[in-house]
């Protein structure tokens, strides 16, 4: 019985510490990028990576058997792969185009662009629009 109680307390402590660290990280990232709306994409990517790393660390640090840990890591990989694979091609295409536009930096918010017969000003840039 004490072994089960030890595992439960250790699991709760690991999840509490990692959850608290993720919360503090997200609050600091929000505060840092609050007056930098042009860097919204970078903030979103940082927060996504932080959540994924926290999830991975929680699986690795919880007191689990090696077999169960392997199954959970496989499940995490399967969920991430399925999310990417089952997303519509438009969504993935738009994400890749957004990443490329951010990387190349050919225009930024405030720039005027012409696409086909449409002319307009870029008001904001995000991961998907």
What do the pLDDT scores average to? 84
The tally of beta strands, per DSSP, is 2
Q: State the helicity in percent bands.
A: over 70%
Could you tell me the radius of gyration in angstroms?
Answer: 20 Å
The largest sheet, given as strand count, sense and whether it forms a barrel, is: 2 strands, antiparallel
**Helical stretch count?**
4
Overall spatial form: elongated
Give the neighbour order of strands across the main sheet. 1-2
Q: Which regions have little confidence, pLDDT < 50, spanning 5+ residues?
A: none
Assembly status: single chain
List the topology elements.
Elements: H1 2-33, H2 40-61, H3 66-86, H4 89-104, E1 112-115, E2 118-121
General description of the model:
- This protein is mainly alpha-helical.
- The chain has four helices and two strands.
- The chain has helices at 2-33, 40-61, 66-86, 89-104, and strands spanning 112-115, 118-121.
- It has a two-stranded antiparallel sheet.
- β1 (112-115) and β2 form a beta hairpin.
- α1 (2-33) packs antiparallel against α2.
- The chain is elongated and about 70 Å long.
- The relative contact order is 0.10.
